[in-house]
Amino acid sequence: MARSVLVTGGNRGIGLAIARDLAARGDKVAVTHRGSGAPDDLLGVQADITDAEQVDAAFSEVEKHQGAVEVLVSNAGITDDTLLMRMEEDQFTQVVDANLAGAYRVAKRAARGMLRAKWGRMVFISSVVGLTGGAGQVNYAASKAGLVGMARSITRELGSRNITANVVAPGFVVTDMTDALSEEQRAAALDRIPAGRYAEPGEVASAVNFLASDEAAYINGAVLPVDGGLGMGH
Ligand code: NDP
């Protein structure tokens, strides 16, 4: 059965790969964008996830076109890296507002329809850095670690209603976000990855697709690394 899916930040990068993967499975897939539009094969809805009203309006639009969201992929995220001693308070709060509070806003809005349907799948895109920490990423790592506590709390609240909330923790993935890294950062990262390479966005999408499937009904509050072994042991 075609399910109603919403992927935040699904207009590009990992989100787009996730959206296309779920669409290929036969789902009706909507993606958020912040004004740049979305590829023609997907339903684009405009929303900045730091704004609860925009989130609400985007969900209403999705509901109108493809029904209440049954599968939510909370993927939108930003980085604003700098060392702790140089990090301004707004650099911290803005990253947490987008990555963590943004996920809370979409999860809360999605839960309404999932509770009514007595079925739902939430997948939060975290990062290996949320588990291991990362120099220069106090804000980002805190926001990504927060997703684990959030998903596990949602699991405790909604787990008995056939709703799962899981976390995918990618390592380095080939996207605009990692394109921004310096050659030096790139080489240092490659040295630490047992797989010896970055992930393709589709490799993250496969993990999300599985967690969103019926077969994953008994997997709840889990953290699934997709990191080529980079974060092993966490
Ligand atoms: P990109 O920078 O390529 O894309 C980020 C996406 O998030 C864009 O669609 C962007 O929308 C959207 N976005 C950012 N802020 C907001 C906001 N306030 N409201 C709505 N949408 C927003 O990132 P990736 O594809 O690389 O990353 C996707 C997710 O995966 C992120 O959460 C990231 O932290 C995580 N991740 C990425 C890794 C990597 O190596 N690339 C590794 C581990 C985790 P717009 O187009 O409008 O800017």
From TrEMBL:
Residues 3-180 form the Ketoreductase domain. SMART domains: PKS_KR. SUPFAM superfamilies: NAD(P)-binding Rossmann-fold domains. GO terms for molecular function: oxidoreductase activity. Keywords: Oxidoreductase. InterPro entries: KR_dom, NAD(P)-bd_dom_sf, SDR, SDR_fam. Belongs to the short-chain dehydrogenases/reductases (SDR) family. This is 3-oxoacyl-ACP reductase FabG. It comes from Haloechinothrix aidingensis.
